[in-house]
Amino acid sequence: MEVFIAQVINGISLGSIYVLLVTGFNLLLLVAMIIHFAYPQVVVFSMYIIWLVLEVTGNNLILGALAGVTSSILLNLISAPLFQKVMEKRGEVDINSTMVMSMGIGMIITDVLSHGFNKGHPIAFPDTLAGGEAILRVGLISILPGQVSAFVVGVIAVSGFFLLLYKTRPGRAFRAIAEDPNGARLVGIPLLKTGLQSYALSGLLGGLIALLLAALIGSASSGLGEQVALKVIAVSIIAGLGNLVGGLVVGLSLGILEAIVQGYISGTWSNAIAFVIMLLVILAKPTGLFGLKL
Amino acid sequence: MASNDQTRAHADSQQALLTIENLSVSYGHVNALKHANLQVFKGEIVVLIGANGAGKTTLLETALGINTPLSGAIRFKGKPIGGAAVDRNVRAGICLVPEGRGVFASMSVLDNLLLGAHNNMKNVGKHLQRVYEWFPILEKRQDQIARTLSGGERQMLAIGRALMSSPELIMVDEPSIGLAPIVVNDIFNILRMLNQEGYTILLSEQNANKALKCAHRGYVLETGTVTLSGTAAQLLDDPGVREAYLGA
Amino acid sequence: MLEITGLSKSFGALQALDRVDLRIQQGRIHGIIGPNGSGKTTLFNCITGMLKPEAGSIRFEANDITGWKPEVIANRGIRRTFQAGKLIPGMTVIENVMSGVNDPVGQVARDAAFRLPFVPSRRESEIEDRARRILLMVGLELSASRWASDLVWAERQLVQIARALIAEPRLLLLDEPASGMGTKEMEKVEEIIRKVREMGVTVVVVSHDVKMLMNLSDWVTVLNFGERIAEGVPEQIQKDPRVLEAYLGIE
Amino acid sequence: QDKVVVTEWQIPFLNCLTGPLASHGSMYQWSTNQAAADINKAGGIAGKPVRVIGVDTANDPQKGTVEMARIVKESLVALGPVPEPVIMAAMPIAVENQMLSITGTTSYEYASKFFPWSVAWFPPYPKRFPPLAKAWAQEFSDMKQVIQFVEPYGPWPMMADAHVAGLKEAGANVLKPIEVPSDAVTFGPLVVKALEQKPDGIIFACNAEKIAKMIKELKSRGWKKMDHLLVFSSGDDAPLYTVGGEDINGIQVYNYVNPDTDSPRWNAFKSAFMKDHNGMPPFSLSTNYYDALFMIKEAIEKTGVTGDPSKLKEERKKIADYCANVKKFQGLMFNWDMKDGVPTNKPLYIFEIQGGKKKLVKEIKLAG
Amino acid sequence: MSLPLYYFLAITAVNILMSWALYVPYRMAHLHFLIVANMAISGYTAAYMVLSLHLPFGLALLAGFVLGAVIGFAVALFIGDAPTFAVVIVGFTFIYITRTVIENTEAVGGTMGLFGLPNIGGSPSVHRWTILAILYGLVALVGFLIHRFDHSQLGRAASAAFIDKDLTTSLGIDIKKMGILLQTFSCTLAGGCGVLYGFIYKSFHLDYFTFHVVGILMTVIFVGGYTTLWGTLLAAPVLYGVPLLFPPEVASWRIVIYGALLIIVLVLKPEGFITTRFVYGIESFLSRKRGKRTPLTKPQEDV
Ligand SMILES: Nc1ncnc2c1ncn2[C@@H]1O[C@H](COP(=O)(O)OP(=O)(O)OP(=O)(O)O)[C@@H](O)[C@H]1O
Ligand SMILES: Nc1ncnc2c1ncn2[C@@H]1O[C@H](COP(=O)(O)OP(=O)(O)OP(=O)(O)O)[C@@H](O)[C@H]1O
Ligand SMILES: [Mg+2]
Ligand SMILES: [Mg+2]
């Protein structure tokens, strides 16, 4: 029983990584109609910036956090016009084009990180970022502050963005721009300003995610983004693209599933098993378990 | 229409709400508008008649700022607005009901309406109530996703959405497309009612009969040029117009 | 030729079609009118198999086609056009028209694969000739090689009709073929529909242009809130009080 | 010796300078450049300077093959390729064209496939690891049960198997290994699964970053006996230290490089390496590439290779034959003896890590 | 023929074929990465047949094609009419699963890979010419078939399916059957390519079939243009060949250059360099020169 509880907690901790990334991914989808296949890479890029600033400032956490968030916002704002340009010729096609384009961005980020930072070695974050000692330790069960904050922020982010997007005026405007920029102009939404706001917002979330992942994982490598990208997209599709709440549920479930498989069945086969299950779900219900929200 | 002369007299005495002078617009090598002139006075219903491709949509879109004019001036309440951003013009009080059911297809009817009031959230409740009164069916479909509305329902939604911003000048691009006669009647009635409440309306129509009957004045647009203008009554009597647009 | 009995379809709480009975006779032009949202498009969707009706049956000629797949129904001789002109923007007009012909996938694959190099497909050139003839009929012969995305609204509708006709359907369903058209274009469409009928195709037309519809139709059905409220020859329908109230409005 | 005809010896190095393994590649590249500089300072190869030309394979077999095909046309000998997939794709070209290509990363299991056109830098696993694992396990009297973390990549599973043999000899009970998925991000589940079986010692055969994270997980779940953790040779890599930080204090690693060797040559190399790598001491594979260039130098000089293009074929053979059976070759760390492309006397060391530094625990000589 | 040229030509041919394998289902918006998994499965099977069962190359190649077809068909039965995302993710998932299976299969070398595939016909030069002949024969054949397909009812049907599912079915097209046909075709091709790929390298390693292949194929198809087969044909050698000529300092940023190129093309010319309009323009120009009757595609001035 102890082992089982420990594994479930491990699963939730792994799941919160997926949840955070899926939420960021979905947000971009909802506010800008971008299938950002390389979203995890972008987050990892911010993690590297945080690390860089921590190195330079002698582990000043506040500056590090600030730098992470700023870089994430900036990166979003820089890539925004590119995506927007692709979206101009919108049709059924272009949601695919954004996906391809984001893969291009991902290729660039991974490559730059692999020989532009720390000589390509993985980076490690100071233990202070993770918040120090375990909150709870009973036998094999252990809960670290980083795990708790990642999980809590994940849940808060999902519900917060859900409310923002579906219940408030700016949220409606974001979705309107995402769906049809020309129509949005007709109702008097300032495209540039609102567009930038939405990008900045998702950038903000990206920075926050980078920070939490730094605390939760404690290190990062140039390949980290690619490693999780596929699962993040898969989770999003299984939940239903753009479905925030679905992403939360499916993300956590995948984390727990993986932990249980690794813990009780097999490590090397754990991906294969998780993927076979995901495959079956997708084949049975291509629009996702919780429905598309586009 | 009885009130025609009266309105005209009233209109002459004041500055035009929307003035379009010598407007030319082109899409690449297609000259969609050539030196078009048009004026809309406060309190009027003006109708723009023209065949397919005559340039009606282009004119309305340019007035709102979607297209950049090649040459010519557009003034709203005396201020030049040619080339200004669309959202500024919308906030200044112009709005456009686009041709062909341009609503946000993946959003609910209510969201669409609220988006219409994006820049004017003060009296949302009241405006919403009013739109629902005019188009009761929208209230019933409130939570339905716009994609699944019937063609006509979407058209109503588009008009309702424009009204949510309580604009000074409402431009409506071919409102009767795809609507049942009874709804078309309703819509013209509503436009007339809105007009009586003080809204100014610029309307484009191909099937000019009903439009002219509810309008004060009209312009005839042919291949990008205004070829004829006058009061609604004059146009209704004009043999050329009758032949070409009234199908008589 | 087409017989619909007791057809029902609902979306959630909304009863889009409520036990509709309809008989469409061979060689007629059958008009359908009804207020917005009365279920006309839904009716078409059910006939063409895009929606699965909850109750009722649809018989086409000798077969009960209820619940058949849309592509099967389309190949049995029922073709339709869409309310919003759906064309394939990346193809030329004539290719769009040609896209209306679709033999079974396997047969086409064989036709494409097992032919000597540089031997043109006979089937393909036959389709192209047919497309040209039909474009001539709808008056778009000069636009054959324009790109579909460059067409204006009225032309799109005509291309849609042409695309449906090239498959030589026996029943043609037109969803608001004349919407957004001026008087002149509308007359043209009217004429085209008549010609289609002369070719032996039965036509069902949905339109909000009462004048055109009444001119054109041999028989008119009126829907309201998913129910059939009236049926008859145009003159009769125009006088029907229920129709006047629900649809035409009293002027 | 016949007259040398080249003005400069150009040795191509098929290396991964970009892509996910670029950090390793740049370290190897550094070593060969350092070797070239040292050789040139001492008068070059047969009187002519040497230059190592970095050729990027980008971890991409497609690129690797074309590059190898280009090199193989006129080079006497080459270094690389790196890493495994490129080796597999490009080495057949070297074999077919009978050119020696020295991959300083290859162990016998890889190299033997390409012999004699590749030399193994490491003896076969069954020879070198059992004694090592045995020596380690015997060091602790309480080592009753041992578990391994094994990542299925390249030769790692085989290496882990070789450990098992030694552990059994030492009388330890070897538990079923924990398989580490190659794209694992968190390691809680694996560590819990391992701890559940109450092992006394753990051997890690995975990627260095993962090892560091697993050690952290172990610590946070109460693992105390740090020296009962053994990191295998490939895991003794920069990320182990950067990611592991303080948490890896006390663990043991094994490796072929003893940084405390005291020889002038080693000391010069070590300080140059540390200067260019933020004070990090050298890792094993870098020394191999340094040695490789010297071995080439020796082969050219001892066999009288001239670099004459018309004698390319025979001179290539000479170099290969020389390297495959070199005796008493003065390496950075030790003097090599090779027999048929396999080193026969390569020592292994076990260290304990303290504050990022390695302290020698034991030297293990090859059996036989 | 020089060795680098051989490798360049051979790998280019595989890239062309594989990009076409990606192109064909993408005509109906199916980004079908299953082909990469197929390459691996067929390749490894063929290698096993040749190395362990000592069967001749021809048989192994045939088996590769057949295996590709069978797997492609079996999967297509499920996703023949699935939405784009589902297809993408199913493909990636299969790559993962295939990898894991191979990792754990000792008979094909597990994580170490396989080595020692023999020369076809004994000598290296016969081997090379055979490989090139097969590859370019395939390129010609497949290109020809795809051209036929693009200019047939199927091509038009696929274009319709790219846009709108309802529209497509209303035209009497069985989307599922078409999806099955296209996917099976591309998987068959990929199966053969996998075998040939292995025989070019004369070895196998898991990492031959990973995401960098996906990256290359995507760049090729989207930079070249996904609306005609010509873009792919041109882009594959250019994108693969040009970076080989770069000096090392530039070449080390190859991936960044690829990525940037992808982005630039998507922003400036979303349909890729070679579009249908462009091809039609050339076709009509050529046929005008040859004095044929004007093809249907002659662009016409608007009034
Ligand atoms: N985006 C565009 N690109 C190129 N030409 C265009 C574009 N939009 C309109 N046109 C052309 O400009 C001319 C005027 O078009 P416009 O849409 O203004 O006419 P309209 O009077 O509104 O016609 P309709 O009654 O069909 O709506 C037409 O010839 C049309 O083909
Ligand atoms: N997929 C759907 N989901 C929910 N409701 C739907 C769906 N499709 C149609 N409806 C509803 O069904 C009713 C009938 O729609 P339909 O499109 O058949 O009307 P119509 O008679 O064609 O109207 P119009 O003349 O305006 O085109 C409408 O109220 C519409 O909102
Ligand atoms: Mg218009
Ligand atoms: Mg309808």
Structure description:
Chain B has eleven helices and ten strands. Chain B has a single domain (42-66, 85-245), classed as 3-Layer(aba) Sandwich (Rossmann fold). In chain B, helix 4 runs parallel beside helix 7 (151-163). In chain B, the strands form two sheets. Chain B has a six-stranded mixed β-sheet with strand order 6-7-8-3-9-10, with helices on both faces. In chain B, strands 2-1-4-5 form a four-stranded antiparallel β-sheet, with helices on one face. Chain B has 248 residues and is α/β, with parallel strands linked by helices. Chain C is an alpha/beta fold. Helix content of chain C is 38%, strand content 24%. Chain C has helices spanning 40-47, 70-75, 93-98, 105-113, 122-138, 153-165, 183-198, 210-216, 234-239, 241-248, and strands spanning 2-11, 14-24, 29-33, 55-60, 63-64, 78-80, 171-175, 202-206, 219-224, 227-232. In chain C, helix 5 (122-138) packs across helix 6. The longest helix of chain C has 17 residues, at 122-138. Chain C is globular and about 65 Å long. In chain C, 54% of the residues are buried. Helices cover 43% and strands 18% of the residues of chain D. The model of chain D has no long low-confidence stretch (mean pLDDT 90). Chain D is α/β, with parallel strands linked by helices. Chain E is mainly α and 303 residues long. Chain E has two domains: 1-209, no CATH class; 210-294, no CATH class. Helix content of chain E is 73%, strand content 1%. Chain E has helices spanning 3-26, 34-51, 57-79, 84-103, 124-150, 153-163, 165-170, 175-201, 211-224, 229-245, 248-251, 254-268, 276-289, and strands at residues 114-115, 203-204. Chain E has a two-stranded antiparallel ribbon with strand order 1-2. Chain E starts with a helix and ends in a 14-residue tail after the last helix. The interface between A and D is large, with 49 and 38 residues. One adenosine-5'-triphosphate sits between chains C (11, 14, 16, 34, 36-42, 83) and B (141, 144, 148-153).
Mean pLDDT reading of chain E = 87
How many domain regions of chain E? 2
Task: Identify every distinct bound molecule in the structure, by name, code or SMILES.
Answer: adenosine-5'-triphosphate, magnesium ion
Instruction: State the total count of DSSP E strands of chain E.
Output: 2
> How much of the residues of chain E is beta strand, in percent?
under 5%
- Overall geometry of chain E comes to globular
